[in-house]
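Annex B, item 7. Sequence and structure tokens for protein A, then protein B.
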Amino acid sequence: AMQAHPQVAGVQQQGCAALVNVCSGADGAGRARKQRAADAGAIEAVVAAMQAHPQVEDVQKMGCWALRNVCSGTDAAARARRRRALTARVPEAATAALQAHPDDAAVQRQGQRLRDLLV
């Protein structure tokens, strides 16, 4: 849906929200869901959504949160997802979100958590 409707902010926000939920959990099933999402292009899709809708706070907030969930973990696969996120310019997307929405506490919280994960 995110790839089919890149200019519809509501679809992008809901797609990111779905990824937040699907990519939660640190157990084996959660790790597998994170990897399947990354393999399906979730990292790049979320960055594209954030770039397409820089002024939509909910897209920025949910995008940062989704990326943090997809990239979290301590195993080798999680480290590989974080490397992929760097290649996909996730830190730049998080920084842009923080700069575009300095007064939105949720964007600031999720954006900073994402940046902290990637350092």
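Protein B:
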Amino acid sequence: CAGLGFSAALCIVLGRWFISQNWLREEKLFEFSRNLEDKFHKESSGADIAGVISEMPIVYMRHKPPTRLKMKWKPKLYISYSNHISVTSEAVEKVEKMFEENEFQAKRIDID
């Protein structure tokens, strides 16, 4: 339970369980899970949710559907624990502050 999209994974698991109980339709999984992740992080970008749902590498931009990332090479990827836990809420607050202080610059960074 230390980062690496754990809250997104938990939200997807709950969403899939709701689907198995016929309480949720499959096409609502992303929206349901992102809204549930809002409870963890105040406002979920949806990036981790999209990544957990996807079975392939994707490019994710907020308010747009994910698109498949076409890889020209296949790197060997490894996950290792760095003994550092990031606090998502602090990162979200920094981004919100940037949008308040300099919306133009924040949008340029967000798009690039």
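Comment on protein B: Residues 57 and 72 are 12 Å apart (CA to CA).
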